[in-house]
Amino acid sequence: MKSLTPSASPSCLQEIVSCLSDYDPDALSVSQAQNIIRQFIAPVQSVEKVAIRQALGRVLAKDMISGIDVPAHDNSAMDGYALRGSDLPVTDPLIFRVIGTAYAGRACDSAVAANECVRIMTGAVMPVGCDTVIPQEFTVDATDATVTIPAGKVHPGDNRRLKGEDLTTGQVALKKGKILRPADIGLLASLGVAEAPVQRRLRVVFFSTGDELRSLGEPLDTGCVYDSNRYTLYGMLQRLGCDIIDMGVIKDDPAELEAAFRSACENADAIITSGGVSVGAADYTKQIMAMLGDVAFWTIGMRPGRPMAFGKIHSGGKSAYLFGLPGNPVAVMVTFYFFARQALLYMMGADAAPLPLLPAISKTAIRKRPGRTEYQRGVLSINQDGQAEVVVTGSQGSGILRSMSEANCMIVLHHEQNQILPGDQVSVLLFEGLI
Ligand code: AMP
Ligand code: MG
Predict the structure, then answer these.
(1) Quick check: CB of 335 below 6 Å from ligand 1?
(2) For the chain: N or C, fewer Cβ within 10 A?
């Protein structure tokens, strides 16, 4: 591995791996690789203000502090009659005098005295002295002047929404690093906030390498395959909310590869390539990657996805993180999900938890030997007892993209895990909700 003079932070790869007693680039565990990546990556620091609709899916760049109480006043949660809880009848129904009506969005100056009430609509400000609302459907003999309130239907304080119960002035409404979801932009609107500071989108360039690859629209010559990795990568990066640049297929030619890597580096925060990083690859991809920066070539204890390059390359005074993913279509997706995804989220400044693994019962035996992490494609369903069960999707070759397409989850067989028998518990990662 080539090392560069460490700049400020983060340190060069060599510095990170020299602190690991058991670092072996030819036998790295998934978690070791994830740790090294995490230590080496730094977030992109650049903030822009966008209208809250445009902020959907973006990463919040600052804590959002509530400037108001939400709701701004105590108000009614129901259509009914507002009264003093202490006046509620205990045994027999009581007739109350109706002294006014409170509508949502209008001021109401009625102030109730004993055995008086105000007809009130949902969302209307609670009249002075009232702390309780009895829903309309519990009342009887209602006229404009009086209403009968039965005993035991509500307790004092019921059906009143309190001022500031959602948010109070000065409270952190949303934390920096949050990826904004529909509820979050709604919450911003409830605070009267029209624009939000978000991290600028991460710029990610990707291309495929290999002489056998053909792009769509080209004839499929003997021995060639259509380039599918650029499409799965497009899908995954798009869903992650990156600005993406597709550089197409780059032939296995040193000059073309160098030009592609340089251009990618000068135009993006991160570069994702597929192919050309296997141990026996007789091509130039690895040479050019190594020549342009601080890049480690790993053999990871995982299946699929053993070979991977990771590092940072430099060109024209710019630098970019590099993820050299393997070529096999399933391996590309697995390495993207388990290495690149978390790293890109971290670069985006997102406060994103690691992917959640859920327990499920394997319906079938799965061959597995300890010492590597295996990612099988599975179909998860809920059985009659409400329990999650999973079966593998047929052939699991790393080139069989159909296995990913038919699956609704990935079965993660951990590093130490052994042979799985029918009825054993396994961990699954659901695709739904994943990018
Ligand atoms: P490599 O890692 O370059 O040795 O590629 C491993 C396998 O993945 C080979 O069978 C390649 O043909 C296939 N492959 C590499 N890149 C792509 C791609 N972009 N689309 C589909 N298959 C690919
Ligand atoms: Mg290749």
Answers:
(1) no
(2) N
C-alpha 228/C-alpha 328 separation (Å) is 10
Closest CA to 149 of 82, 74, 75: 82
Q: For residue 399, give the ligand 1 atom closest to its CA.
A: 8
Tell me the mean pLDDT in the region 192-211. Answer: 97
Residues in the chain: 435
- Rounded Cα distance between 261 and 253, Å, is 12
Question: CA-CA distance, 337 to 11, in Å (whole number)?
Answer: 25
Atom of ligand 1 nearest to the CA of 281: 4
- CA distance from start to end of the chain: 32
- 267-282 per-position pLDDT tens digit: 999 999 999 998 765 6
Q: Is the pTM of this model over 0.85?
A: yes
Give DSSP secondary structure letters for 116-146.
Answer: EEEEE-TTPBPPBT--EEEEGGG-BS--SSE
Query: Quick one: which ligand is closest to 401's CA?
Result: 1
Q: Please state the separation of Cα 314 from the chain's center in Å.
A: 29
Which of 221, 224, 229, 323 has most ligand 1 atoms within 8 Å of its beta carbon, as the pocket-test mutant? 229
pLDDT at 435 over 60: no
Q: What is the mean pLDDT of residues 248-264?
A: 96
Beta strands in 302-357 (DSSP E): 302-303, 307-315, 318-325
Counting atoms of ligand 1 from 1, which one is nearest the CA of 249?
A: 19
| Cα–Cα dist 324/335, whole Å | 10
Is the bond into 89 cis (omega within 30 degrees of 0)?
no
What pLDDT does 11 receive?
A: 75
Assess whether the C-beta atom of 279 lies below 6 angstroms from ligand 1: no
Are 81 and 134 in contact, with CB atoms under 8 Å apart? yes
Given this model, what pLDDT does residue 433 score?
77
Question: Parallel, antiparallel, or unpaired: how do β-strands 172-174 and 64-65 relate?
Answer: antiparallel
Each residue's pLDDT tens digit, 138-191: 999 999 999 999 999 999 999 999 999 999 999 999 999 999 999 999 999 999
Alpha carbon of residue 75 to chain centroid: 35
Could you give the percent of the chain with pLDDT greater than 90?
92
219 vs 116: CA distance, rounded Å: 85
Write out the H or E segment, with its range, that includes residue 388.
strand 388-392
